[in-house]
Amino acid sequence: MEDLEKEIGRLKVRLQDKNVKAVIIPHISPDGDAAGSCSALSQVFEQVGIDWHILTCDYVPEYLKFLKNISSAISFQEKPELCKELISAADLIFMLDHNTVMREGKLEGIVANARAERVMIDHHPNPELQQFMISNAKVSSTCELLYTVITKIFGKEVITSDIANSLYCGINTDTGGLSHNSSRPEIYRIIADLLEFGLDKDLIHRQIYQVNNLSRLRLMGNTLLNKLQVDTRYPVAIMPITNEELEKYDYKDGDLEGLVNIPLSVHNVAVSIQITERKGRVKLSFRSKGKIPVNEWARIWFNGGGHFNAAGGQMERPLEEVIKKVLETMPLFFEQFSK
Ligand code: 5GP
Ligand code: MN
User: Among 61, 274, 318, 334, which is 20 to 30 Å from 50 by CA?
Assistant: First the structure.
């Protein structure tokens, strides 16, 4: 904690120079915490007169576009040259909600070689060392941590209702609607503050949870009805989803959000794995309940990582092969990590 205060103090000094050019980068496939934190930080910079751009290696999903400034994010897939120019002109690169440059997709090499100093603000374990390290794996979300960073550097008076909305979006989504990873009283003190600054809690709930379209419901329904399998040896549910199914149900980014959590509601399922085929690669999402560190499963065998109970990985192999690997590594994982 002392280190954190020191790092925030160093950043405060650095940001006294209002001529700094900042770029703000969320992780690949931004979620509510990544997009919420980018939105909040950009609004603060706007207020205090710091030049900022939000850059993404891919796209922000539609359901998060209500967050202020998020629609102005520049995608590397659409404007690679502009992204390169902005990164090379930047003095500070803010890495939000990720613990390694590797989570920046195709921006990775460009960011890694830039002259700018990198500022990590994140809550994932095992962070990669950067020039500024504001990292705390105990907090619920990057947005929770960012609230502390913003208020310590700029004071509480900069928090507007739009900033409060963005920060709450990350706190709410990363805790599954305050259902997990949310037992520290501090979170509720921050939420109470945000309400005083004009947070519209009900609006966030509507924007995040009441945005189903029929194709998303049908894709989820099809997966739960026809694709979900529960292993006979271990308490593991697996849901493979093919490219063909995504096309059939008119998949859009974000449509599968939350699906992987559903099998965990079955009492004898302790791990849920969604295995999704996507344009030449396969993405895995792991969730667990209790003392099962799925980030280790993702890290050791699937080029990934993440949190103890929520992790992800990927492989550039055919779907069938990835499923086979999940089944093969299951006994190895449980032998080594489940106590
Ligand atoms: P999701 O399943 O929602 O994509 O990811 C859940 C969590 O796993 C994310 O918050 C992130 O911490 C982590 N994660 C997902 N994919 C990867 C990956 O490819 N590499 C690493 N290191 N972490 C990942
Ligand atoms: Mn997060």
Answer: 61
Hey, whose CA ends up nearest to atom 6 of ligand 1?
311
- Residue 121 dihedral angles phi and psi, to the nearest 5°: -125, 110
Residue 7 CA to ligand 2 center (angstroms) comes to 20
Report the DSSP pairing between strands 132-135 and 117-122.
parallel
Query: From ligand 1's centre to the CA of 71, what distance in Å?
Result: 23
- Which structural domains are found in the chain, ordered by start? 2-209 (3.90.1640.10), 214-337 (3.10.310.30)
In which band, very low, low, confident or very high, does the pLDDT at 1 lie, cut at 50, 70 and 90? low
pLDDT at 134 over 90: yes
Listed residues: CB within 5 A of ion ligand 2? 33, 97, 141-142, 174
Q: Which of 163, 161, 170, 167 is nearest to 198 (CA)?
A: 161
> pTM score, two decimals?
0.91
Q: Which helix (H) or strand (E) holds 25?
A: strand 21-25
Residue 98, pLDDT score? 98
Q: Are 184 and 144 in contact (CB under 8 A)?
A: no
pLDDT tens for each residue of 14-24: 999 989 999 99
Torsion of CA 257, 261, 262, 267, to 10 degrees: 180
- Report the percent of the chain where pLDDT is more than 90: 92
Joined together, the tokens standing for residue 11 give 């950043």
Pairing label, strands 92-96, 74-75 = unpaired
Q: How far is the CA of 172 from the centre of ligand 2 (A)?
A: 10
Q: Provide the pairing of β-strand 21-25 with 305-306.
A: unpaired
Which amino acid does the sequence have at 226?
N
DSSP letter at 116?
A: S
